[in-house]
Amino acid sequence: MGSINQNANASALPNFRNLGILLRILVIVDGACLAAALFKTSEPLALMEELIDLSATVQPTLLASLLALAAMNNWLRRLAYWPAIAAVIALELAVATAVYFLGRGVFDNPGALERYWIFTLLITGVLIGYFDLRARALSPALAEARLQALQARIRPHFLFNSINAVLSLIRKNPAQAEHALEDLADLFRVLMADNRELTLITREVELCRQYLALEQLRLGERLQVTWDIVDMPADALIPPLVLQPLLENAVYHGIEPSSVPGVITIRIFRDRDQIHIVLRNPYRPDGEHHAGNRMALANIRERLALHFDAEASIKTDATADSYEVRIVVPYLKGIT
Amino acid sequence: MTGASPLRVLIVDDEAPARNRIRDLLSDCALKLPLEIAGEAATGREALEMLPACDPDVVLLDIRMPEMDGIELAQHLLKLDEPPAVIFTTAYDAYALKAFEVHAVDYLLKPIRLGRLFDALSRAREITPLRLEVLRALKPEPRAHLSVNERGRIHLIPIQDILFLKAELKYVTARTAQREFLLEESLTGLEQEFLGGFVRIHRNCLVAKSAIRGFERVTGADGESQWAVLLNGLPEKLAISRRQQQIVREFGKHLK
Fold first, then answer.
1. Residues 6 or more apart from A172 whose CB is under 8 A from it?
2. Any chain B CB within 8 A of the CB of A165?
3. CB-based contact (8 Å) between B28 and chain A?
């Protein structure tokens, strides 16, 4: 396993609490039912009956399985891949057996228990194979996510201006210059790290504060920042470098082009099982430099999709004098 | 170099630390090269206001600044009878740097190195003055202001204040709600530069789209009735030439 890192994400069970995963399972199982029914007859009416018959046994099994898998998700994900597969198969057989015995009283002709088992095993096998293939297909994409995080990197413009600001401090205020260089080092440590894994939201916030401290050096009172994060759960996980590039855009488009002070507002809060990140900055629609902004947004949108599938979103809203970006991600807990 | 008069340097940069840094470097240069800091400005407008008093030989000019960038300011500086030498400073701008090389425009990369600054200042008096075409090529976007030289002072006219531009003999007149200015520029050049904001209503007249209040039939010099533009903030009516009558229909829709 020389390339253990590249395959780290390949052989793992899917997250059974993810809406996208659940939908995929539903579609595949019901697709299989339709195929089975079509194999028996193509007469529309007979087909309907066949489908209803099949559904009566398959749907309860399917829904019970999904519930059980979602409930056991965290425990399953802690297991190694093969033990986890064995556990899923055992769970499915147990669910099928339970549905069989509970349903025996309801259906006239339930058939043999073995048929339930074989059907369940087949479908489970197909699904495990599918999710394994999908994970492998996405794994280069996850490696790519790191590259993309690098692409979302700090603008050279910021780097050189910051170094310039630090240089200007060295003679008059060496202590402040030291502090600024430490911030710069921290920022680049994160930028150059492996950014495939989710990170604690508090770390991203800390990074953003360091970034803003550097910008403050150059821009002075022109840059005003309001943090509203009292309702932010400290243990929430987000992809790294989701907020920082947006702040950089906010400074570049909202603060730098104006000679009067402007306020950037960052609001992070939890709403039920979702984390909302709302960033707002002053903005004048002058039709200039939008390409960089769009690139950063596309990059973040793509990385959110890789990590959270359909459960994350990013929206922008431009009014006459302000620009707002709102990111919603599912609330995943990490260890603080 | 005569050696007698020290080189007067004006620093223009919107970021205070960047100005501090240049000031430090200039004081290092001053050990070997007679120079003095003529002034420091945080915006293009401030720089233009300081000009008559500080009379610089060289301007160290940041490119990316709010309200008016360095390249636009350099264009306004050309209106002076004896424009100072301009050395641009920039942290990073891949596109601009390529253009600077092509047109042999002097620039310094931030963080600025003492040696490079010293060399640039030593050559400053021999620098060939910037040409307007070069600056226009560096920044093809329309300027935010027009400018006129009035008795040695550069006066700025924000584009959004201009109601109309009218060609008269040798000059173009720019009319704002308060007064008018004589520009030494061609109407055709201005029309091309500000294509989005102005509309040509006559061979000799461009009107700011935002200044159009409405239209009215008037009797022309030839006794025939024709359309005229009514302006926001001015009682004057501007005749629309026969060829441009379709403007009334196009704009009439927006005005309703």
1. B20
2. yes
3. no
What residue ranges do the domains of chain A occupy?
8-137, 142-330
A88-97, A147-156, B129-138: segment of lowest average pLDDT: A147-156
The total of other beta-carbon atoms located within 10 Å of residue B113's CB is 12
| B20: closest chain A residue by CA | A168
Q: Is the pLDDT reported for residue B223 higher than 60?
A: yes
Of B16, B20, B110, the CB nearest to A161: B110
Q: Nearest Cα to B113, choosing from A269, A163, A258, A59?
A: A163
d(CA B81, CA A235): 65
Helices A44-78 and A81-103 cross at an angle (nearest 10°) of: 140
pLDDT digits (tens, 9 = 90+) for A245-283: 999 989 988 999 888 999 999 999 999 999 999 999 998
Reference B112, options A218, A167, A185; nearest CA is: A167
The pLDDT tens digits for A151-184 are 556 678 888 888 999 999 999 999 999 999 999 9
3-class secondary structure, A68: helix
Facing A161 at nearest CB: one of B20, B66, B91: B91
Per DSSP, the three-state class of B139 is coil
What is the ipTM metric for this complex? 0.79
**Contact residues on chain A for B66, CB-CB shorter than 8 A:** 256-259
Q: Is B8 on the interface with A (CB under 8 A)?
A: no
CA distance linking residue A10 with residue B174, whole number of Å: 68
Min Cα separation A149/chain B (Å): 21
CB B80 within 8 A of CB B29: no
Residues with Cβ within 8 Å of residue A225, at least 6 apart in sequence:
A212, A263, A264, A265, A266
Instruction: Please report the number of interchain residue pairs, chain A to chain B, with beta-carbon separation below 8 angstroms.
Output: 59
Partner B contacted by A286 (CB < 8 A): no
Architecture per CATH, domain A142-330, reads as 2-Layer Sandwich (3.30)
Residue B27 touches chain A, beta carbons under 8 Å: no
Phi and psi based region of residue A166 (left: phi greater than 0; alpha: psi -120 to 50; beta: remaining): alpha
DSSP H helix total and E strand total for chain B: 8, 15
- Crossing angle of helices B114-122 and B16-29, in 10° steps, is 70
Contact B21 A167 (CB under 8 A): yes
The DSSP bridge pattern shows strands B35-41 and B7-12 to be parallel
Indicate yes or no: CB of A165 within 8 angstroms of CB of B17.
yes
* β-sheet bridge partners, residue B85: B58
| Omega cis (within 30) before B111 | yes
Against a cut of 0.90, is the pTM above it?
A: no
Give the chain A residue nearest B93 (alpha carbons): A157
Verify whether the Cβ–Cβ distance B111 to A164 is below 8 Å. yes
Query: Quick one: closest CA in B to A171, which residue?
Result: B24
A173 touches chain B (CB under 8 A): no
Choose the mutation target among A160, A161, A172, A173 for the interface with B, i.e. most B CBs under 10 Å: A161
More confident residue, B144 or B223: B144
Q: How far is CA A52 from CA A28, A63, A215, A227, in A?
A: 17, 16, 64, 55
